[in-house]
Design a protein that fits this description.
By secondary structure, the chain is an alpha/beta fold. 40% of the residues lie in helices and 22% in strands. The protein has 10 helices and 11 strands. Strand 1 and strand 2 form a beta hairpin. Helix 1 crosses helix 4 and helix 2 crosses helix 3. It starts with a helix and ends with a helix. The relative contact order is 0.14.
């Protein structure tokens, strides 16, 4: 390797801070020392990491790739040190866990109780940010296991089937569609539609149910938190299509009503995602296996 860890830390600090002076402050060195460190890194690499524009720096294309790598490896090293300290002190393995797409944790306390009994040497740590970018978080090491709906296939990521669910229309209990045995996509015409994602997700309702019909809801509003969508629907502000399991608590307490999509329903599989590089006996694989076991029971 041509660069030392101090150079990788420098790249991340400059990227996070935006200026040399602020990055120097974060690193606890003088701006002059940081400038020398940057020059040394560029000399070792044989090219520019940044273009100087007055007092500001602009990443070169090659520099941008190096910074992206620094943003992955520095947090990974920091987490490795933290996990080592945790394991050295408590003799436990930390597994960072998240749920993709939906912020649903009604099931988590029961699962944690089972894990505490069956796997006392594994400590689960919830990573809420995994909801938005599960694959990126897995690749960067921010999270170790993600419970995810739909089919998310990507090189380097293992997908283990956990349970089968379905997508349903979620409405106010007194909505005209609430009494239907099922709905068709055309029933969404004229409805205010709430969605948690700004982009159409492969394998979900837009691709499989709405787009083939050519229907366009009257108004589409993005609400990125599932709980907020449920509260709005319960108050009469529109409808949505969501995982039935993810919002089961609200359905059970009568806040909202679930209506199947189509006469044959629209299935939705949930999987445990983890890095392919995890060893056969890795704690992340143990957690994934326990998820499968717990949902079957």
């Amino acid at each position: 390797m041509r660069l030392d860890i101090k150079h990788w830390e420098m790249l991340k600090a400059i990227n996070d801070s935006g200026t040399l002076s602020q990055a120097a402050y974060v690193l606890g060195i003088t701006q002059s020392a940081l400038s020398h460190r940057l020059a040394e890194a560029e000399r070792r690499l044989g090219g520019l990491l940044f273009q100087r524009e007055g007092r500001s720096l602009r990443q070169t294309p090659a520099g941008r790739a190096m910074i992206q790598t620094a943003n992955q490896i520095i947090p990974a090293l920091q987490r490795a040190e933290y996990d080592f300290q945790q394991m050295a002190e408590n003799k436990t393995t930390v597994v960072r866990f998240g749920v993709a797409a939906y912020s649903c944790y009604h099931w988590l306390p029961s699962f944690l109780q089972v894990m505490a009994k069956k796997e006392p040497d594994i400590q689960l740590e919830l990573v809420a940010s995994a909801t938005q970018n599960p694959l990126q978080n897995l690749q960067e090491g921010t999270v170790d296991v993600v419970l995810a709906p739909g089919h998310l296939a990507i090189p380097g990521i293992d997908s283990i089937s956990v349970f089968q669910d379905e997508l349903v229309l979620i409405t106010h209990s007194k909505h005209t569609l609430a009494t239907r045995s099922y709905i068709e996509a055309t029933d969404l015409e004229g409805e205010d539609y709430l969605t948690y994602s700004k982009s159409a997700q492969p394998g979900f309702e837009y691709e499989r149910f709405i787009r083939p019909s050519g229907v366009v809801p009257y108004l589409v509003t993005v609400v990125e938190v599932t709980d907020a969508i449920i509260e709005l629907i319960a108050a009469g502000f529109g409808v949505s299509i969501l995982s039935k399991w993810a919002v089961q608590s609200a359905i059970n307490n009568g806040s909202v009503t679930a209506v199947p999509l189509g006469e044959t329903k629209l299935d939705l599989g949930w999987s445990a995602l983890l890095r392919e590089s995890e060893s056969p006996n890795a704690a992340a694989r143990v957690v994934s296996a326990r998820l499968v076991e717990w949902f079957k029971s």
